[in-house]
Design a protein that fits this description.
Helices cover 47% and strands 12% of the residues. The chain is α/β, with parallel strands linked by helices. The strands form 3 sheets. It has a 4-stranded parallel beta sheet with strand order 2-1-3-4, sandwiched between helices. A two-stranded parallel sheet has the order 5-6. Strands 7-8 form a two-stranded parallel sheet. InterPro entries: AdhesinB, Bact_metal-bind_prot9, Lipoprotein_PsaA-like, ZnuA-like.
Amino acid sequence: MKGKGVTAVFLSLLVIVLTLSACSFNTDTPASPHGQEKIRVYTTIYPLYDFALKIAGGRAEVVNVTPAGVEAHDFEPSPRTVADIYEADVFIYLGGPMDPWAEKIAKQLAEKGVVAVAAAEGLLGDEDHENEGDRDRDRDHDHDRGPDPHVWLDPVISKTLAERIAQALIAADGENADHYRQNFEVLKARLDDLDKKFREAFSGVKKRDFVVNHDAFGYLARRYNLNQIAIRGLSPQQEPSPRKLAELARICREKDIKYIFFETAAGSKLAETLAREVGAGTLVLNPIESMTEDEMKAGEDYFSAMEKNLENLKKALAE
């Protein structure tokens, strides 16, 4: 995680940038926000960006603050990027440990007329999905847990995220309210369909334990009565001790784990090490915290990533 000194410097720069922006703020705001036909929307992480893009349906310019392919957990924007956010019409952040920097500026943004929304407000809480894997494993990082931010991996919770995004767009651009509502209903139906696919896939399976690179799939596991066992904690930067790896190897053998999951952004070294130790294979399980430029150019999005997650989970849990 970032050191206190780095955070202090960041906040100092942030105050300077926001002060300068406030001094140059144009009080003669035109009827169309910032003189643009499209409202400008900033999001902090990829899932929020993808949902906002789908709900906006071309009526907004949507920008994701975290660059493509960048690990989102420890990302902090530059002062220049913060200044750009200050000129937005809508700012959508998750809230909690994934984007703590956003909470520090949200109130100031709202005071200047930016619609600032914490999409996951009231939804976070890792105590809601503690599972057998959490209880069994050696938890080297209990001191560093806190609320689990990965709510978007539960399609049912994602409907709430999407609804709050739609409400934010309507608040900023009421003239296109019907457009945003219609697109939200389409997105909601797709999330319902995704939820149905997951429920049907795992309703009758006997094996329910799966091993992942980091503790990102608790909400998904709880929704579909699965059991996540994580190598790392809530942040993929947390490194397990040799003692913890030995304990994980024991659990994998006891539970007859055939595959160890990893995500490409965090690398596969630990997953491959554990897989070799227990004679298992490896598969990708995507936490969808970010997308690479190549993935987005290829047309990948939240739904295609979740479909791939579903297929790989089905393979890992097959008898």
